[in-house]
Amino acid sequence: MDLSTKYLGLDLKNPIVPSAGPLSADIGNIKAMEDAGAAAIVLHSLFEEQIESEELELHAHTTEHNEQFPEAVNYFPEPVDYKKGPEEYLEHVKKAKDAVEIPIIASLNGYSAGGWTDYAKKLQEAGADALELNVYILATDVETPGATIEDEYVKIVKAVKGAVSIPVSVKLSPFFSSVANLAKRLEDAGADGLTLFNRFYQPDIDLENLEVIPNVLLSTPMALRLPLRWIGILYKRVNVDFAATSGVYSEKDALKTIMAGANVAQVLSCLLKYGIGHITDVVNKMKNWMEINEYKSLDQMRGSMSYMNVPDPSRFERANYAKVIGSIK
Amino acid sequence: MDRTKVTIDGNEAAAHVAFRINEVIAIYPITPSSPMGEHCDAWSAQGMKNIWGDIPSVSELQSEGGASGSVHGALQAGALTTTFTASQGLLLMIPNMFKIAGELTPAVFHVSARSVAAQALSIFGDHSDVMATRSTGFGLLASNSIQEIMDFALIAQAASLKSRIPFVHFFDGFRSSHEVMKIEQLSDDDLRKMIDDEDVLAHRQRALNPDHPVLRGTAQNPDVFFQGRETVNPYYDKAPGIVQETMDKFASVVGRQYNLFDYVGAPDADRVIVLMGSGAEAAEETVEYLAAKGESVGALKVRLYRPFSMNHFIDALPKSVKVIGALDRTKEPGAGAEPLFLDIAHAVSEKYNDGALPFDYPKIVGGRYGLSSKEFTPAMIASLFDEMKKEKPRNHFTIGINEDVTNSSLDYDPSFNVEAPETLRAKFYGLGADGTVGANKNSIKIIGENTDNYAQGYFVYDSKKSGSMTVSHLRFGPKPIKSTYLIDKANFIACHQQVFLDQVDMTKDAIEGATFLLNTTVPQNEVWDSLPKKAQEDIVNKKMKLYAIDAYHVAKETGMGQRINSIMQTAFFAISNILPREEAIKLIKDAIKKTYGAKGEKIVQMNFDAVDHTLDNLHEIEVPGTITSDKKVEHVIPDEAPDFVKEVTSVLMAGKGDELPVSKMPADGTFPTGTTKWEKRNIALEVPVWDPETCIQCNKCAMVCPHATIRPKVYPKSELANAPETFKHAAAKGKYGDDMVYTLQVAVEDCTGCAMCVEICPAKNKSETRLKAINMEEQIPLREKERENWNYFLSLPEYDRTQLKTNTVKDSQLLEPLFEFSGACAGCGETPYVKLITQLFGDRMVIANATGCSSIYGGNLPTTPFSQNADGRGPSWSNSLFEDNAEFGFGFRLSYDKHQAQAIALVEKLRDKIGGELADAILNADQNDEAGVVEQRKRVASLREKLGAPNGDASVRHLLSLADYLVKKSVWILGGDGWAYDIGYGGLDHVLASGKNVNVLVLDTEVYSNTGGQMSKSTPRAAVAKFAAAGKPGSKKDLGRMAMTYGNIYVAQVAMGANDAQTVRAFLEAEAYDGPSLIIAYSHCIAHGINMQKGMDNQKAAVDSGYWPLYRFNPDLVEQGKAPFKLESKGMQMPFKDYAYMETRYKMLTKSHPERAKRLIEEAQEDVEKRWKEYERLASFKPDAD
Predict the structure, then answer these.
(1) Is the pLDDT score of A216 beyond 80?
(2) Active site (catalytic) residues of B
(3) ipTM of the shown complex
């Protein structure tokens, strides 16, 4: 039984890859993920904006009251050296690399033009095997057309690809009017893979306190439908590797993503819910299912249920909505 | 040998040497010496080594007494040991100084000399502290300049080791300790050459050591003590010679020759002044100027004051001397003269008697100058020389003030100037928060370290902690700078904050052709018209150049916020031409990289951007020949202000306190209260505005307001008849009677704009949830109307105190605060508590206030925040010292109790005259609540009426003078954690144990806030503080639990931001408790590194994490069979680190020492859990029903 897969040029023993999230911030968890059978790990994101804001906050709070009052020209002992945000993250990448044998994929959320490339280079230097760009542009400005946002994605990918030699995937949100066209443009820009899709945390409203509150909900298996559809549509039509993310809970979910055309299935919510050991369960059950159903390898099934390969591709399309509605009647 | 040139201040210069030579450093923070200890602690934390290849150990003690004890111990055990202190700190060291000297122990104490508190405290410089140590046996070596501080720190150490006489090495507080100057830095090699290993080994050999045991510190009897005391004579006889030899050796090693007394001026001078300290620099500058003009004058700089070498002194004077002027920077009331004068007079007299005076007996006069950093200028020195020309020169004079009571002062001509014309003299007016001082320190470094110019910087801060003005005085030039006084003849003046232009006459100090740089938001073509009339006149008459820049705009564009430092610095270099423009910009950028590089690229880039955008926004403004403005620079005091405010306070407020004559000052340090209200500082850019529709009238905003600038009032609707048009009101919610209305009014001219009120407001606008019942709006458009509204609000009657449920937050805030508009920081976490006690008990309270933040915002001139109600009652306040505050307040109680007892006895005695019924009512009055106190006041009024005039009856006279003590007096002892946990703990413990009825309020900021955030025993584990740069490794002392062990002390722990109702209840119970009470109040602080607007959120998080449990321990409950300890918070609702990492004091450790931070935060979590369990156990205790 061959569960191995290739993703971003990396040879992986199976397609289960924990996705960027809080668990990978801890080296202990990273080791546990490897022990449980993870084939690679995407680290939690390095957020340039957050690093900058933390730096600015620290600077502001340690200096804002300086030189105002004769008895206290300052209020904090200033260390000669700070472990700045990126340094901490870069050290984490190094530690993760030292701790496990499996590939480590760093995740980067840039902010400034220079930030994407500078941090990408640093992550490569720190030993990351690949990069996942967590591009996160929420278009709230009514004056900004969609095309501008898309151009920005393309620009970032080109810049990062020009700066590093390790493979680069792009994690996308589903909120584009033409996901397929953008995927193609990103391929042309040099992306080696696409991670579909980034799930934004949607805010909630607190009725008691009249506040908008960030509300982190785990993804549900239902969320899988979105990556399934789009990986299915894009497979072989856009020549990059695919990682499916959102809603992968079970071996069946993972198998579906491969059949749609994914190279790997990224998992997070199920690990937060069931624990890191759940990876072992998923991998074992995948193996069982493939044995029972007489599949020899993942390559054999990859894309078998894609737009290219199904008898009725229209099922992936918009028209299919009417049929579903019809079937309910 | 080429030595490194450094641009540093005096404190750093002393610390540089002290750190490198010593092995043990024991310190305690006190202004202005604290930075010496802080430097050493920081260097030690960085692993920097001394010349012995070792990292000195730096320990903070609980007081200067403690520090000197440890120094004594370390010296006895053989280590090279030092300490740093000033003022009261030095006084606390005196007992050990006698011991250290008596035991002939070499050591150097570095002292930034500061006034000793007398009629008032002062943090500024004079010699009253070091003069108080004259009899200890310590040598006294004076440094006059920053270079000398570094040099003499070394000479003192070498000479002490050689002579076995310990030394105080002193220099003037602030003028020298804080003056930044380019100097030559002594190398480790210099230090090694100067310190003789043999002396060090001999010191070590004398150490107490069980391997060769001795006993030192015997108790001696009359038979031998005297003889024992005289054994040291040869050491003192030799010491001056040893110091001179050391100075000579220093000259051969380093090249600078010093002598015990250094004479400067005309070789054949007939008039010579003698002085020591920074004033000697100005004296040297002056005599050089006058001598060059042919005046026969000179100055003798005293280096070694103790042991005083008469031979060296007499030899150093020119043989031509006819008149000696002795200048003392201290005052000894009652003495025949000040100490230096007496030493000089004695030396001359003794030498004369011995027939060894090499000149005719001169006239000797003396006087005082420069107390508490009073300016000492060439004009004053020249005036003294003029006086000394007279046949009968004035003696026992004062100079620099107008002493119009005994007429001792010498007049002088302020326009007299000796400064070298080639020296560039620049003055910068900035706002505390805008980075002006930091930028100027940086400019001095840039010029000092990249050109051959000499450079000097001195910085003047005001005593407010919010909206304060800073004035930087910078000198650069090709000649050495000896001008140890402020600049009043400037060729460059910069106003970094537009608002100050209308308050301060800045251009008065400009010389002809000077440049004026203004930061203003006014468009280029309107700048001229925006200037005050006086500024326009000066600019025209003095042919000044005018430049303007909108630095706020550049700062905003480049993300710099309020920090306009790099922008104004670039503008200064661009127009001062002190360096080629391109080179200056490169050097500024290098400095930015060096200063901020460790903190992140973004910060560096933002500053670079700011520099790059400056020149495009900097414009020369054409100066028209005409005056277009009629705006005056003045502070208007209303007619209704008391005379004292008009004649004295207003002068202080205008920054002209130097002009006040002695006759205007209270003779005993007593000042009227309630004067902050005349100040109207208008420092808030935005102020809260009330929305009556949304408001639920909870009064939480008033509760948290640190400056008492937002106030509610409930009053009859009929009062609205004459209300101003924009005066707002709403129907009063609650049971206040029919037709009562409610107003929430803001004193916009007194508000600091902290927005804590908005943050705490629980009411939200139902249509626009971004709005609350109070919202911040721009102040200027509101100013006029709200001034009128505020005055009207004050004229409305107060609600009857006796009818309010003062145990609720809402009603407690309807009580008039008698603490208002203090100089505390915007968003201060302490002052809401102080205000609350004045609301509850202000009309009957007396406050003993420990030195610290609360004594500064409570008692620092010019104005006083403690105020009075309509009856003229209010808190009476005093500050004794830092260390003795509990005892001080205890003394209040003893007096009150004594006077009350005497009054009671007299009531009994005069029962017939008073009437039995009234007498009994007075004697049996229950004064445990507001109504009880009010009733008793009425009875005492009746008593006075009944007693009438004394008509010679002594008992009546005495009862009339004591009758007020029949009304309850509430004694409050206030202070911070530095006092309560450290320096004052022994006294606090004793006073609490006394059982007396005193109320202690500890404003716990968990660091020494006033002196800049040093660690106390209240500092929590894992937090960074000064002297705990790597995070405090130990846990916070549980002061409350220690007090509870006595069993009869009321103890409460409160945090207003977490539970304001519990705070109010605790205050009321504590005061009502007939015995000692202790309230520990969580006080968020700028030293925590937080957003002060959200300070109450931090308080809540501290409680929710279980770190700061709320509780009340009331011993009275035991008698009622109830559990005395009530735990009133819910415990660990969130992990400690979620609270801690809201604050920079914890967070920065994760950036500086990540691994240690992780360990300490886990240990801190364990502290929380352990303490909580212990408290739960206490709460479960039920007294036996029996």
Answers:
(1) no
(2) 31, 64, 114, 1010
(3) 0.93
